[in-house]
Write a structure and sequence with these properties.
EC number: 5.1.3.2
CATH architecture of the largest domain: 3-Layer(aba) Sandwich
Number of helices: 10
CATH class of the largest domain: Alpha Beta
Pathway: Carbohydrate metabolism; galactose metabolism
Radius of gyration: 19 Å
Distance between the termini: 41 Å
Largest sheet: 7 strands, parallel
Subunit structure: Homodimer.
Bound molecules: nicotinamide-adenine-dinucleotide, galactose-uridine-5'-diphosphate
Catalytic activity: UDP-alpha-D-glucose = UDP-alpha-D-galactose
Order of helices and strands: EHEEHEHHEHEEHEEEHEEHEEHH
Strand order of the largest sheet: 3-2-1-4-5-6-11
Number of strands: 14
Shape: globular
Number of domains: 2
Helix content: 40-55%
CATH topology of the largest domain: Rossmann fold
Enzyme class: isomerase
Length: 331
Amino acid sequence: MTVLVTGGAGYIGSHMVLALRDAGRNVVVLDNLSTGFRWAVHPEAVFVEGDCGDEDLVGRVIREHGVDAIVHFAGSIVVPDSVVDPLGYYLNNTVRSRALIAAAVANGVPRFLFSSTAAVYGDAKESPIAESAPLDPVSPYGTSKLMTELMLRDTARAHPLKYVALRYFNVAGADPAGRSGQSSPRATHLIKVATQAALGERTHLDVFGTDYPTPDGTCLRDYIHVTDLARAHVLALDYLAAGGASAVFNCGYGRGYSVLQVIEAVKRVSGVDFPVNHAPRRAGDPAALVADASRIREVLGWRPELDDLDTIVAHALAWERSLAARRRAAE
Ligand SMILES: NC(=O)c1ccc[n+]([C@@H]2O[C@H](COP(=O)([O-])OP(=O)(O)OC[C@H]3O[C@@H](n4cnc5c(N)ncnc54)[C@H](O)[C@@H]3O)[C@@H](O)[C@H]2O)c1
Ligand SMILES: O=c1ccn([C@@H]2O[C@H](COP(=O)(O)OP(=O)(O)O[C@H]3O[C@H](CO)[C@H](O)[C@H](O)[C@H]3O)[C@@H](O)[C@H]2O)c(=O)[nH]1
């Protein structure tokens, strides 16, 4: 079995490649390095630098390496950027995904996993949110991902391709063995930014909005460890290989933490009391996103092993320290 991982030089994709290699699978990574890093590609994976929207290239890669499953992480991921540049997000996340799916169909790839997002639910009325909740994204990012889910749904009805869309809630942390982590210096994710503030790489942290209808006025999110998430993907591939039907699964722990609770955890774990400012709301942020993850537990038998906010923060901090050491060594 050879798995094609698009976006395998990025944060979550690099953890998926670790999980696949740990399970002894052959891996080809396709990445255009727009936000990923060549050094983050696993040394035992074949690396192809290119775009997942290049249908001819993807077709050649599938045939040359005998690809029988595609795991599609490549995309643009910053919610507020999508509000400013919707067409850029529809191009990279929707149009290029269509080309990738077309190449999969044309070359008979039977299995496809897609990185979807809790952003497809928008301002959900229910909490926790089940997969059956209304799909009503409040950002172009969420819409761009939902359209790809719908393309997969319709394609799987018309062709012998089975898919699983995994709707991630907030992914955080780093490989417990320190082999990968979130490496973008311009990352906007809360835990990443807070660990940078704790290590003095940012002067302060802004809290975007303190007037949400939540217990402390800041947004609630369900933070999932990236290694637990990668394991869910390996289970999803096994499920499809065993004849499982196409499906959609939430990926989260089912518990929400507020922005202020996350900041407290980073201060507690790092022992650093960095400055925190209250700032206006950020565009496109729903107040609360917490997963009902019972379906993935029941159908895939997924059992989280790193379900603890302090553990997530400790692993993120360890990775941030190793990035700082890497930078110092390069100077
Ligand atoms: N990080 C999160 O909390 C989160 C939550 C929900 C869903 N997701 C989804 O997970 C996926 C991975 O996110 P991430 O956090 O690892 O982001 P990332 O930016 O670290 O990784 C994305 C990777 O895709 C590559 N890429 C982007 N566009 C490409 C293209 N057109 N062709 C080839 N390569 C391309 C980038 O160079 C990068 O290596 C994304 O699809 C994202 O929407 C992420
Ligand atoms: O410096 C910061 C960064 C974030 N936040 C707040 O922290 C919460 C989490 O924000 P992140 O940027 O870490 O994550 P998002 O919830 O915006 O989005 C993430 O999770 C989503 C699904 O829940 C999407 O899939 C998306 O790709 C991914 O970036 C939000 O309320 C945000 O306003 C701050 O207050 N200050």
